Amino acid sequence: MNLIKSERSTVGFMVVAVLFIALIQVLLSLDILNNFWNTLLRFGAVMAIVSLGLNLIYGFNGQFSLGQWGFYAIGAYAAADITYRWTQMQSASGLVVLFLVVSLVGLSFWGVTKLLYLLRGIDPLSGFTLYLAGVIIAGLIAVKLGQFLIEPVTALFSAIPAAFAMQIIFFLAVLLGGMVAAEVSYIFGWPVLTLGSDYFGIATLGFTIIVKVLLDNSDTLLGFTEMKGARGMIGIPNLTSWLWVSIFLLITLIITRNLLHSSNGRAIISVREDEIASKAMGIDVAQQKILTFVLGSFFAGIAGALYAHINGFLHPNTFNFIKSFDPMIIIVFGGLGSVTGTVFAAFAWALVLEGFLRLWLPQGFETWRFVVYPVLLLIMMLLRPKGLFGGFEVPFLKQLLPPLRRPVKSNGEKVPSTSEVKQ
Amino acid sequence: MTAKKASPAPLLEIVGLNKNFGGLRAVKDLNLTINKGELAGLIGPNGAGKTTAFNLITGIYVATSGSIHFDSTDLVGLPPFDITHLGIARTFQNIRLFPNLTVLDNVRIAYHAHAGYSLGDAILRTPRFFQKEKELTEQAQEFLGVFNLQDRQGEIAKNLPYGEQRRLEIARALAADPKLLLLDEPAAGMNSKEIVSLMELIHFIRDKFNLTILLIEHQMRVVMGVCERITVMDFGEVIARGTPEEIQADPKVVEAYLGRGAAALAKKLSGKRSHVD
């Protein structure tokens, strides 16, 4: 049967993926791949996760978004703050407060959505205002409530062996980083997703710039002194190991695959194909756009959180809007709407740009890689305009066609056909 | 010219519908009643407001004033997807398939509203997902079978020949399980052989799926051959309604289509002919 076949390819893929991850891990532990490559591989995986998120938004849903980098930044700083406070200040305050904020804001979203359902036909901007009010109220409650919970939770985590507690906090920090990015994207997406594709691109670009400026002033304007604004945040523990990134990448891949190969995935793609036809087929286009945008941003937040713990250093310049084109380049390079292509291109991008080109170019000419790289992009786009992989997918990610079925009762019923008419 | 108003169950009832685009009144005081099981036609010269009327019914535009009652629900102000869920499906003047998707997926998308599993089921791949997805796929395939497209399920929609694209669009609309089907110029761009089979197809689906059909058409052959009742629009207003025979004889319709001079000429000619008779 077809489904069994698809499950077989899943098992095959998982085996290959686990073996590959293990192999890299062995090479890393034996120091055959040194620290330089270790960092690049982890960075490649992080880029793969951001780009998979963007590919959902742009490649599959057709919304040209430059906001991905802003959500990446939000995830990075949110998660970094949690682990920073734990390691440097021995306090779970970041974890507790952010957890409460995320859950209460989520609750307020749920409430406002129910309210908006009753007030049918409200315009997006008024909806946005309601959501914003909900967020502010929920946020204030969360911060107040957090004061009481910080002490006991800190005590609880101190009771567990330190190394283990660190890993748990890191894992929760990454998830919360993703959740914060997702919730910000939900509220931001409300007014903005009604815009047409190009206008949407500019609006999201604006978002990325706002985030960067806020991070430049994070110590003064936002009041997070530990983020140190434009001087850069230091002292974040280096917790992102190859194993962690590959686990997160694998989960991202599976979620993406399962989503795309479902009825929801088809609805998402139909919005890209033809919005009006999609509406006429009974699909709530706005809902599908929000869903994709939020999920894509969630991945961006996760990736950002992982990135923050690679070098242990964050600087707002990393999240400059110019850089927001990197994931865009990756998904176009790998093939819009190709998951395989995105993952491949993300690793290739990280390894080639920062790795091979740096090694191959003669001493003193390393910065010339920014000359070689655009030329490579140009040649690539001319030779393969549909991206490296076009529509190709590995079997695990490919949607199988069900076997042909003859109509059961075709006896006697005359089915008018235009197929024999060839013009 | 006089529409029968005695019929018991109007499926769609449009009363005093207006739509303004700035200063342009695209649809002026449209009244239209369609009964269950009817095959109705909406004709008129280009720019008469027919497609606007369709867009108003399906919720793509919101009416300036007036009401559209479908099965006693007022459709004005409802979003398009809700209107589809209530049981109105449509095709488009210039085919709007999902061009880069397979034929099968084009039809399967229509089932999204009643897929029967949640996003969580899909992401976690619960048994429910597999079961519902299988059912849904089989239904879609059966549908393609009815339209003789089952062998084409894996084909990318945009690669199909024109006639099959039309057929697929109708199949997709029907997969949404409508009570009322709106066809916007289904015969546009078809040759005469394709038109004949299209007419057969329209009759066939009406009988097989128990549908009520409203179609817009320019090809008089299709209109006269298929429709039981015709409404004629010009400049956003209804200028005539009746059976095909009545419409053909209506001087206002001839005038709208051919212009006043030609209409006068036609009248003179027909007058002469009757004189000779």
Could you write a compact summary of the structure shown?
The complex is a heterodimer of chains A (423) and B (277). Chain A has 423 residues and is mainly α. Chain A is built from 14 helices and two strands.
How would you describe this protein?
The complex is a heterodimer of chains A (423) and B (277). Chain A has one domain (33-397). Chain A starts with a helix and ends in a 40-residue tail after the last helix. In chain A, strands 1-2 form a two-stranded antiparallel sheet. By secondary structure, chain A is mostly helical. Chain A contains 14 helices and 2 strands, in the order H-H-H-H-H-H-H-E-H-H-H-H-E-H-H-H. Mean pLDDT of chain A is 87; it is low at 409-423. Chain B is α/β, with parallel strands linked by helices and 277 residues long. Chain B folds into 2 domains: 10-87 and 178-276, 3-Layer(aba) Sandwich (Rossmann fold), CATH 3.40.50; 101-169, no CATH class. Chain B is built from 11 helices and 10 strands. Chain B has helices at residues 50-57, 80-86, 103-109, 119-124, 127-146, 162-175, 192-209, 220-226, 244-249, 251-258, 260-276, and strands at residues 10-21, 24-35, 39-43, 65-70, 73-74, 88-90, 180-184, 212-216, 229-234, 237-242. The longest helix of chain B has 20 residues, at 127-146. Classes of the chains: A mainly alpha (423), B alpha/beta (277). Chains A and B meet through helix 8, helix 9 and helix 10 of A and helix 2, helix 3, helix 4, helix 5 and helix 6 of B.
